[in-house]
User: Fold Dienelactone hydrolase family protein from Kribbella deserti.
Amino acid sequence: MGSDAAGATVIGIEAESGSMPAHLWLPPGGTGPGLLLLQEIFGVSPYIRERAADLAALGYVVIAPEIYWRLDDTELDESAADLVDKAAGILTRLDWDTAVTDAAVAFEHLRGRLEVTGGAGLVGFCFGGGLAFNVAAVTSPDVLVSYYGSALPNLLELAPRVTAVSLHHFGTADTYIDLETVERIRAAVTGNPETEFLLYEGAGHAFDNPLPMFHHPEASRQAWARTTEFLKKHLPLD
Assistant:
């Protein structure tokens, strides 16, 4: 084990055919409920690490696994004009079922750690939002928070198997997931009466990402405030 540039501890999680790299953040008190944070298509980027650190500061034990660990050539330059195209190209090489299995293994590892007291949940952004939904269907998290889950339109048949209380965020100006599709997602995932489904006027896809091409400051602020409130209610701190 070692430390990465964001102050997390780099760990290995035993998965099929090898050790999956992951990043672990502990809260100030050293213990707390657990959260598995699942990446956007850009990997465990500085933004994802910042959000992980934010969650740890609240009191959660956070693990962000490197879902692309089985692939070569996954380094991305966030300043590159073709960032989205290159990230999308990496995603085409990823096997979805293997990614679900790896993420589920990471979640069970998280839940079994001595530092995790209380429950454990899933938080995912974009690609990770859909992945977290799929993982919630094959594991038993206490909570699920999904930001504009890009794979959700193709996963709605799993909705009856997602029993965790969940929070979903979508922007009304998302050109990747149109409002008709968003409403179809809403109808499928809101079976649990405590599930929350929130829309943000004028926000596009990936509105929480601080890169200028994506960021919607007001939607980001509102959604993060609601996320932290939701987690404290349904995954209470010690």
